[in-house]
């Protein structure tokens, strides 16, 4: 798919570049002050990818959210070229705002190779026809179409849910991987709660601590995808969630993990 206009994600990935240092002015978002983790992770992946040969595609990323960032301010992304091999390239990205580190990321890129193609057949926990439309998730509702469980009235999108881009995204593997990175941060924080604790607006303070993604297969943002995320551990005020992103036909597109801080 091609688009005659620049997509919202491509606009968010526009950098001023000086060698391997990338600078971006984060957009203003009204009264919202805390920078969305999925955005800063997507921008970090884009900066890393800009230093990699075109033939190598995002394979995985592992990010630590060191401290909260803010909108309407500059962020610098410093990229270290850890390794450039024939099949793989590795990068370390440090995102800095107001002189303080807000994110550290290690990203790997891989030249596609022939081999076995297998993934488990998993039944959906939420069928598409049983999901209902939902708007205004963290003020990003205009960028995505969402279908969630009928009882989900939270400001998040409680997994499992269905999601697709509401407008065309460029046919560029890196831009599409950054789109996936952005949306992958929409569900894990609420999912990291223990199953017996219901999500409430007054529950307490929550924040992403770290986030990992494995990019298995090409991502088509215009198609419906099912995001399944489940809690696997909670202790010491930290919850661990494991996620899987599936295409509508059940193909496993990506796997995620995230640990979230929950001070209740």
UniProtKB/TrEMBL annotation:
<dbReference type="GO" id="GO:0006637">
    <property type="term" value="P:acyl-CoA metabolic process"/>
</dbReference>
<dbReference type="InterPro" id="IPR042171">
    <property type="entry name" value="Acyl-CoA_hotdog"/>
</dbReference>
<dbReference type="InterPro" id="IPR029069">
    <property type="entry name" value="HotDog_dom_sf"/>
</dbReference>
<comment type="similarity">
    <text>Belongs to the C/M/P thioester hydrolase family.</text>
</comment>
<protein>
    <submittedName>
        <fullName>Acyl-CoA thioesterase 2</fullName>
        <ecNumber>3.1.2.-</ecNumber>
    </submittedName>
</protein>
<feature type="domain" description="Acyl-CoA thioesterase 2 C-terminal">
    <location>
        <begin position="161"/>
        <end position="259"/>
    </location>
</feature>
<keyword id="KW-0378">Hydrolase</keyword>
<dbReference type="InterPro" id="IPR003703">
    <property type="entry name" value="Acyl_CoA_thio"/>
</dbReference>
<dbReference type="InterPro" id="IPR025652">
    <property type="entry name" value="TesB_C"/>
</dbReference>
<dbReference type="Pfam" id="PF13622">
    <property type="entry name" value="4HBT_3"/>
</dbReference>
<feature type="domain" description="Acyl-CoA thioesterase-like N-terminal HotDog">
    <location>
        <begin position="31"/>
        <end position="110"/>
    </location>
</feature>
<dbReference type="GO" id="GO:0009062">
    <property type="term" value="P:fatty acid catabolic process"/>
</dbReference>
<dbReference type="GO" id="GO:0047617">
    <property type="term" value="F:fatty acyl-CoA hydrolase activity"/>
</dbReference>
<dbReference type="Pfam" id="PF02551">
    <property type="entry name" value="Acyl_CoA_thio"/>
</dbReference>
<dbReference type="InterPro" id="IPR049449">
    <property type="entry name" value="TesB_ACOT8-like_N"/>
</dbReference>
């Amino acid at each position: 798919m091609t688009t005659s206009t620049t997509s919202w994600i491509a606009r968010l990935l526009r950098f001023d570049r000086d060698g391997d240092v990338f600078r971006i002015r984060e957009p203003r978002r009204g009264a919202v002050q805390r920078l969305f983790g999925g955005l800063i992770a997507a921008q970090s992946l884009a900066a890393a990818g800009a230093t990699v040969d075109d033939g190598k595609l995002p394979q995985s990323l592992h990010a630590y959210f060191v401290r909260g960032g803010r909108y309407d301010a500059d962020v610098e992304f410093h990229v270290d070229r850890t390794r450039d091999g024939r099949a793989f390239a590795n990068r370390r990205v440090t995102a800095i705002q107001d002189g303080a580190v807000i994110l550290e990321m290690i990203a790997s890129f891989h030249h596609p190779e022939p081999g076995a193609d297998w993934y488990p057949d998993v039944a959906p926990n939420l069928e598409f026809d049983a999901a209902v439309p939902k708007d205004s998730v963290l003020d990003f509702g205009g960028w995505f179409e969402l279908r969630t469980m009928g009882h989900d009235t939270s400001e998040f999108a409680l997994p499992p849910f269905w999601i697709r881009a509401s407008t065309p995204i460029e046919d560029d593997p890196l831009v599409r991987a950054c789109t996936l990175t952005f949306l992958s941060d929409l569900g894990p924080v609420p999912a990291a709660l223990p199953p017996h604790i219901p999500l409430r607006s007054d529950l307490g303070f929550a924040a992403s601590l770290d986030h990992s993604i494995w990019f298995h297969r090409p991502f088509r943002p215009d198609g419906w995808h099912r995001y399944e995320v489940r809690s696997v551990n909670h202790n010491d005020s930290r919850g661990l969630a494991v996620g899987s992103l599936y295409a509508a036909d059940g193909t496993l597109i990506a796997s995620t993990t995230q640990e979230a801080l929950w001070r209740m």
